[in-house]
Amino acid sequence: MEYNNASAKNGVADENQNMCINCKHNGLCREVSRESADADKLSHIEKAYTTVLSELGEDVEREGLLRTPLRAAKAMQFLTKGYKETTQDILNDAIFDENHEEMVIVKDIDLFSLCEHHLVPFFGKAHIAYLPNKKVVGLSKLARIVEIYSRRLQVQERLTKQIASAISEALEPAGVAVVIEAVHMCMVMRGVQKMNASTVTSVMLGSFNDNAVTRKEFLALTMQK
């Protein structure tokens, strides 16, 4: 009897699952499921922040902190929203055939990220250049690529390489160059506490790596104020 009941239950569950998969609102079902999962994640992060505040000696029931765990959880989700985005999502309709082979530079792209070692911010500017190989991309999309990868837990060296690699894979250009200048609050607020220290990283691919003249032109155009 138990076996038959289990079979019957499984049959109903399978039928319901098939109905959901085949229903005309399947996209809506997935969206509702995704929203439910996001709500669960937000709740878990909120509880974690409550624990952190308590362990620091704070009274999480006092008026000023009543909603702080929730606000902090939402802020952390926003600051790491790059995990939910891909370059394919933003570039599919923004790459165009164009007979242009001269250097394209977008400089002074603001970026904000979180150091994965201490979960404190680092921020600065990214400078990007590429040498088109019969393909160009909408200029704002370069800034979007910076946003995708900077809105993750990062180290500056990896961030620089990820941006360059993403552009290279999407456009297959003759060369890509990325330079990032950033200030790390883990150096300013804690540790050595050096207020004026900044970090510069670069990645040169293709012609920017192989051709010293091309590299020098990029650096001269980028670093001039």
From TrEMBL:
<comment type="pathway">
    <text>Cofactor biosynthesis; 7,8-dihydroneopterin triphosphate biosynthesis; 7,8-dihydroneopterin triphosphate from GTP: step 1/1.</text>
</comment>
<dbReference type="Pfam" id="PF01227">
    <property type="entry name" value="GTP_cyclohydroI"/>
</dbReference>
<dbReference type="GO" id="GO:0006729">
    <property type="term" value="P:tetrahydrobiopterin biosynthetic process"/>
</dbReference>
<dbReference type="InterPro" id="IPR043134">
    <property type="entry name" value="GTP-CH-I_N"/>
</dbReference>
<dbReference type="GO" id="GO:0005737">
    <property type="term" value="C:cytoplasm"/>
</dbReference>
<keyword id="KW-0783">Tetrahydrobiopterin biosynthesis</keyword>
<dbReference type="GO" id="GO:0008270">
    <property type="term" value="F:zinc ion binding"/>
</dbReference>
<dbReference type="InterPro" id="IPR020602">
    <property type="entry name" value="GTP_CycHdrlase_I_dom"/>
</dbReference>
<dbReference type="GO" id="GO:0005525">
    <property type="term" value="F:GTP binding"/>
</dbReference>
<dbReference type="GO" id="GO:0003934">
    <property type="term" value="F:GTP cyclohydrolase I activity"/>
</dbReference>
<dbReference type="InterPro" id="IPR018234">
    <property type="entry name" value="GTP_CycHdrlase_I_CS"/>
</dbReference>
<keyword id="KW-0547">Nucleotide-binding</keyword>
<comment type="similarity">
    <text>Belongs to the GTP cyclohydrolase I family.</text>
</comment>
<dbReference type="InterPro" id="IPR043133">
    <property type="entry name" value="GTP-CH-I_C/QueF"/>
</dbReference>
<protein>
    <recommendedName>
        <fullName>GTP cyclohydrolase 1</fullName>
        <ecNumber>3.5.4.16</ecNumber>
    </recommendedName>
</protein>
<dbReference type="GO" id="GO:0046654">
    <property type="term" value="P:tetrahydrofolate biosynthetic process"/>
</dbReference>
<feature type="domain" description="GTP cyclohydrolase I">
    <location>
        <begin position="45"/>
        <end position="221"/>
    </location>
</feature>
<keyword id="KW-0378">Hydrolase</keyword>
<dbReference type="InterPro" id="IPR001474">
    <property type="entry name" value="GTP_CycHdrlase_I"/>
</dbReference>
<keyword id="KW-0342">GTP-binding</keyword>
